[in-house]
Automatic annotation (TrEMBL):
<keyword id="KW-0812">Transmembrane</keyword>
<dbReference type="Pfam" id="PF07963">
    <property type="entry name" value="N_methyl"/>
</dbReference>
<keyword id="KW-0472">Membrane</keyword>
<dbReference type="InterPro" id="IPR012902">
    <property type="entry name" value="N_methyl_site"/>
</dbReference>
<protein>
    <submittedName>
        <fullName>Type IV pilus modification protein PilV</fullName>
    </submittedName>
</protein>
<dbReference type="InterPro" id="IPR013362">
    <property type="entry name" value="Pilus_4_PilV"/>
</dbReference>
<feature type="transmembrane region" description="Helical">
    <location>
        <begin position="13"/>
        <end position="34"/>
    </location>
</feature>
<keyword id="KW-1133">Transmembrane helix</keyword>
Length: 188
């Protein structure tokens, strides 16, 4: 008796399903790795933006340059005077005149709030900004400025500031998830 079978046997179907599942698991894991990398890249871009933002604020308020030095992690209280630049806000006699000191206080408060993501919220939770940021600013008498941004990365790989200069190392909490971005410039 000669039996010819048309179609697939159960074993062939199971083997092909196993191969398909292994391929789908690989694609799914690749997707997760890509999302993590994308988020890490976004955080680094944000850190760069915030560092340049404070440098630009410092350039506009050069007389208060040394007053910008310090460590910032979201602890500043809101200044009593709201000012974006040291000039007459609102025009005429009814406007509010901000001093350079008041402008510096407002700059630091606004900058610190934005790096903590206060401008982007979902419910009561801040969702923008950096993850657990700490910023450090060093200013020398000659106008040399070093801005360091540190934040927490998604996974533990290495300490982003472990091999850096002492000032960069001292910014933020040392651990394998710390990421660091620093920029050095001269403001004259």
């Amino acid at each position: 008796m000669n039996h010819k079978s048309n179609g697939f046997s159960l074993v062939e179907v199971l083997v092909s399903l196993v191969i398909l599942v292994i391929g789908l698991i690989g694609i799914f894991n690749l997707h997760l790795v890509a999302k993590r990398g994308s988020f890490e890249s976004f955080q680094q871009t944000q850190a760069s933006y915030y560092a340049i933002d404070i440098i630009n604020r410092m350039k506009l308020n050069r007389s208060q340059l040394v007053g910008y030095a310090g460590t910032y992690a979201g602890n500043l209280s809101e200044p009593s005077q709201s000012c974006d630049v040291a000039l007459n806000v609102g025009g005429g006699n009814a406007g509010i005149t901000c001093t350079n000191v008041q402008t510096r206080a407002w700059d630091l408060y606004g900058w610190e709030q934005s790096m903590n993501g206060v401008g982007e919220t979902k419910g009561t939770r801040s969702i923008g900004g950096l993850d657990t940021p700490t910023a450090c600013i060093q200013v020398s008498g000659t106008g040399d400025v070093l801005v360091v941004m540190t934040w927490r990365g998604i996974r533990a790989v290495s300490d982003g500031a472990a091999n850096a200069a002492d000032f960069v190392k001292s910014c933020g909490t040392a651990n394998k998830r710390r990421r660091a971005y620093s920029i050095s410039t001269v403001i004259i």
